[in-house]
Specification:
Distance between the termini: 28 Å
Number of helices: 4
Shape: elongated
Radius of gyration: 18 Å
Length: 138
């Protein structure tokens, strides 16, 4: 059992690292080559919300597996906020890309939204499936 738990920890860490790397890769695509993502005006904000919301969920689950720290949602949100700032800064070095504060706002909003939804779902699952009583508890 411990071995499978250890494998899960490394798997989640690898997913977090891989997904973060994917976002860095996508951020380094020159602006002209990503025009297909503009479905409607400001649709890039929707992409930021979705991609960085997913990053927050991955970070949250990786943190839960690796640490005994409470408030993993907060630390996952902080991870996304810091990464989002760095991501916007890195885009200033990519042709036809630029840093946009509103992209960062979409990043942290997506992280907060996804983490809130995940927290609500987790609470509902715990209500629907309460833990069995501990037989050692008097």
């Amino acid at each position: 059992m411990f071995n499978s738990f250890l494998k899960m920890k490394w798997f989640l860490a690898s997913v977090l690292l891989g997904y973060t790397g994917l976002l860095v890769y996508l951020s380094h695509i020159p602006g002209k080559k990503i025009s297909y993502a503009n479905l409607f005006p400001h649709s890039d904000k929707l992409w930021h919300l979705l991609f960085f919301g997913a990053l927050a969920l991955v970070a949250h689950h990786a943190l839960k597996a690796w640490t005994a720290v409470r408030l993993t949602e907060l630390w996952a949100w902080i991870y996304v906020a810091i990464f989002g700032i760095g991501d916007e800064w890195m885009q200033t070095f990519v042709p036809r890309r630029y840093a946009d504060v509103m992209d960062w706002v979409a990043d942290i909003s997506g992280a907060a939204l996804f983490l809130w939804i995940a927290n609500r779902l987790e609470q509902r699952l715990q209500q629907d499936n309460p833990a069995p009583p501990d037989p050692n508890d008097p």
